[in-house]
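From: lab user (bench 3)
To: helpdesk
Subject: output format question, protein + zinc ion

Hello, I'm new to running complex predictions and I'm not sure whether the block I got back is the full result or only part of it. Here's what I submitted:
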Amino acid sequence: MIIKFLGGCDEVGREAFLVKDNNTNVLLEYGVELQPEILLPLIPNVQVDGVLISHAHLDHSGMVPLLYKFQTPKLFTTPATLDLMNLLLEDYIKVGKITRNYAEYTKADIMKMNKHAIPQGYNKRFRVGNLQAEFFDAGHIPGSASMFVSGSKNVLYTGDINTIDTYLVRYGTQKYPKLDCLITESTYAGREHADRKNEEKRFIEKIKEHENGLVMLPAFAVGRAQELLLMLQENNIGREIYLDGMGQKAADIILFHKNYINDADKLRKALREVNFVRTKKQRNKILREGGIVITTSGMLNGGPILYYLNKARDFKDACLLITGYQAEGTPGKKLLETGYFENEETRFKVNIEIQRYNFSGHAGGTELLNLIRKAAPKKVVCVHGDNTKKFANDIKSKLGIEAIAPKIGENIEV
Ligand SMILES: [Zn+2]
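Helpdesk reply: Thanks, we reran it on our side. This is the complete output you should expect:
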């Protein structure tokens, strides 16, 4: 079995790994790097038999439609991921047309992709050419999977993975087959998360401090927006909560695929009680009267959050509570570092309280090591992180398992 790394090795973005075995070519992920600039994975210069996608986030799925311009592989992913992917891919085209006057593919390519999609649930073997594959719940967002491929060797790619429970999704107890090779994400390798319960307590207390003001919660549309909604619900905030932007549609899709979340009744109840914001008039009313707004985008690089932040930047009793990962070069990251909001069009000082909380959807350093120890593969390949080389060394010294950190374009033999 040969694995060629087409992208997403020592970076977070453009994940793409090509597995060649038994005369079959399987592509694991075909994502796009969005920040600080758009970067595509390498082109798989072979006929791809099947593409397996771990979850809907664009760094894992964003360039799949591009493949269908040149070939027609089968697409395997969970039903929830397929629908969430469609939402994000269409948005990618829309945003591309607005901001760059360009998108790498069209709606017709997405339609072509959908025609070749064969959705698969968790824990059920399926065939891809001469290989077998299986999805395991990865606990990251609804529909997210770790992906197992078996031929002459057994390999598992974790995908983005979170082994602790959240309100929205739960990893559960995953039992993987015997592995020759484990490809692991490394987002938080070498770093530990703050205790989630404490973070939640701090977060809720801060919201209560601003009980008459505007509380802005920028959030990724898929996963985080719904997690925050459930968290607010669970803590009986007793204030008007608003959901603005693409998190609304994502919530509907997630609710439709209710087998992929912990508690559909709770999410349904939360969505019944939340106010959906669709017009400027509604936004202005919220700015006047205050409330809690969950809105896109999570890294402040677009979406309704910019409207709120621009208007409320000098408000007496407003706050911005950031709960998601802020990539290098994003307005969200810059704002945390400098106190200024800055994008291509504008720059202004933000004079309201800004706080940061860690509700990560990724396993922390120790959790990753525990996962690897339990899976006990012969070899570990570290990808999807800023410090994969160091992580590989840690795995070797702490667990005594062979570990490598490949570069883009590299082939390895398993
Ligand atoms: Zn993700």
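A quick orientation on your result: The chain has two domains: 2-191+361-413, 196-356. Let us know if anything else is unclear.
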